[in-house]
Each structure stands twice: as C-alpha cells, then as structure tokens.
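Issue 218. Parser rejects a valid record. Input:
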Amino acid sequence: MIINDTLYKFNDEKLPANFVSIATKIEDNIPTHAAILIRYQDRNFLHHFPGATKPEVIADFNEDGWYVYKIIDALSSSEDEVGSILQYCNRICKNSNITYSYIADGSSYTDKGDFISKIGLPEFGTCVGFCTNTLTNTIIDIEDSYLNLEDWDDSDLLEWVDNWSIKQAQKKYPDLDWTLYNAFKKRITPLEYLCSAFIDEYPISKIKIDEIKTTVQESINNLFPIT
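Output the parser choked on:
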C-alpha cells in the first residue's frame, strides 16, 4: 500500500483535470474536518458539511495548502463521470436538511439527492458522516455502507460537541426517539476518514484503518513539517 506518494497537500502538485478525492483540513498537523474534493475541468470544488450551516459545494475552492487529499481509486477520473458526481453532490447539498450529530447509522442519498434513512432517524451526521453517506451511493463497489459502522462506538465523543448537537436535535425534533438516537451514536474521526481513502474493500473495517493510521499521520507530518 503506497501512502506517502499518493497523499497530497492541496495545490502542491499539478492536479489532473478531473478526479474525486477524500480530503481533510489540517490544523497543527491534525485532520480536523472532512470533505470530498472534486477536480472538474481544471476547477476545484469542495463538497462538505460545515456543521452549523447547510452542506455546500464550494466552487473554485482554494485553501492554499491547508487540505490534504487522496484520489479515490474506485472512482473513474473521466470528465463525464466526475461531472456526474459533482452534479450529484450539488443535488445532495440542495436537498439536505442535516443536523450535526454523532449519529452514524449507514444512511445515504438517492440518485436525486434525497436522504434515505436506514433506521428511521431524521438526517443526522458529522462532517465525516455526511461525506461517507455521500460516498455510499457514489462508489459502485459498495453494496450497503462505505464503512463497517459496527466497529465504532461512542467512546471518543467530544462531550461539548455532543451536548451542543443534542440541543440542536431537541429544538428541531421534539418528538425524537432518543433510545434509537443513542443506539447509533459513534464518532469516526477525520483521520480515520482520510485513512479510508487507501482501502478499497467495502465496507471498510476499523481494523484496516487502525493498521495504517500511524503511517498516514506520518505522511501528514512530512507534508506539514514543524519549524
């Protein structure tokens, strides 16, 4: 598995005209935010969920190096295919009513960009969950879910984020089934999301991700040397 030669800092390399990639924002050498970086006809587009505002596709995105990305090998880099994925992402962002939460239940989106609830909850997710839900019906090799979500639990939740998201859910859904909500609470970190880009056996297990986390972090450190 080649990692160092396939993980790039945004704008450090001459980019191909068309591709779809997994991307994360880097702050103090730590991945802090998940996105899907799309290069289409030599223009950059960032598909992501900021958290406090609606998901968006940022056209002509330019973050001056603070994102790293890995091109998704399972997706074609043909102009037509990438253009179709970009349109799909735009439809998802237009239709989405997502509320920030640590819920990860394997939900996804239809071809028209409408949310499909897998277990009956409204549309919840983190920046990572939003991206993995997008990828589930984007990568043809995926039969059910991008990640094997049963491998994750709620042990790594950030308490203040969890408390804030619960308040948002209470305002929006006063009759929410909280037993169901709590049953699917789990955190996939942006680093784990970035690691998933190097694995193409779906659903991706946490064990596979854990095997390469250190190497991926070392690659990030090489891209952002501390001076």
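Fixed in the parser; the record now loads. DSSP finds six helices and ten strands in the chain.
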